[in-house]
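Board work, copied verbatim: Inhibitor of apoptosis repeat-containing protein
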Amino acid sequence: MEALQSRIDSFSKTKRIKKYPKKQTSTIASIKWPHPPTFKANASTLAEAGFYFNPSWDDRDTVACFLCDKELSDWDADDDPFEIHYTKCRSTCAWAIVRCGLNEDLDEDGNYVFPNKTRLPSSKAMEKARLGTFEGSDWWPHDSVSGHGASSKKMAQAGFVFTPQAAGDDTATCLYCNLSLGGWDASDDPLCVGF
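↓ predict structure ↓
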């Protein structure tokens, strides 16, 4: 579920759930995402905030984070998935820190001001959080190639987070300038992109 499109697609698919998951014979229900697209927490915003649809028998609108596995449910029309994920997981989830916390860095006009200096793009805390987006289940394919110029560590140092659009994709994005690049070669140096 690290790919954005996979998370979005999870909201359009019917899920089959059991009332008692550990019993072989149990009542089964087919569940679809129960809320209208007019909700602030819709397929697009939830997926961008890191969530995929993961209902249970008791909580039919449960979502789970692809990176930290945090589960949330009981969505109301005005719930902001970015704000909620950041509030609940800002000290444990790399995606919540780097993506959902962006609103912390903006003024009312949408300009970056970084009132919290630990959230500066050059801070070690933010670099560590960006690195965390590359490390789930050995997702970053270039770390397995010895001496690859676009290692996850260099990508995080250069300001990139891992944002694959589909399985096998190596797209990384700078969330501050919205530059997305993929197709990283062994000789590429993410610290010199654009020079």
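The beta strands are 15-18, 28-31, 51-53, 63-65, 71-72, 161-162, 172-174, 179-181.
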